[in-house]
Amino acid sequence: MAQAKKSENIPKPIQEKYQAIVDITDSFTKENMNEEYAQLIGYAVAALCRKRPSPIESGKAATWACGATHAIGMVNFLFDKSQTPHIRSTDLYKKMGVGESTGQAKSKLIRDLLGMDPLDPNWTLLSHLDSNPMVWMLNVNGMLVDVRHLTRDLQEIAFEKGLIPYIPADRIDT
Fold it and tell me: Of the CATH numbers 2.70.98, 1.10.472, 1.10.3470, 1.10.150, which one belongs to the domain with range 12-123?
């Protein structure tokens, strides 16, 4: 699966609303999550801003912020106690001042609009790419294979075509 290009380009008419939403998510992620989540949530909000018509033109900034945070959290298993960071979804709603049903509905709308699924390679945190099997599974001649088990030359071809984010052997762990 090709990785979507992430961008924070925002159409001028909606920049103010975008900034209001991102101010909320940045503050929330700084206190409860991390910078990696903040950046990915910002990309999701920017993608919503570029939709025509943009769904974020109506509704409260806090509701969109909560929905975007929850949506990215769902993809990355933020609500699983074994993950770091993690938070309960009910705590997310409460801290963002959004009702549970409203937050869930906005999250579902965002996931539908942006085609997000659990383990979605396009919305996975960079630190989780190595352990996300969906990043590395490719259909080769009708057979699903883990590209990490292919020869380097085939990995290079997959990388050049944008099918994988990097060549696994070249990954430098920091």
Answer: 1.10.472
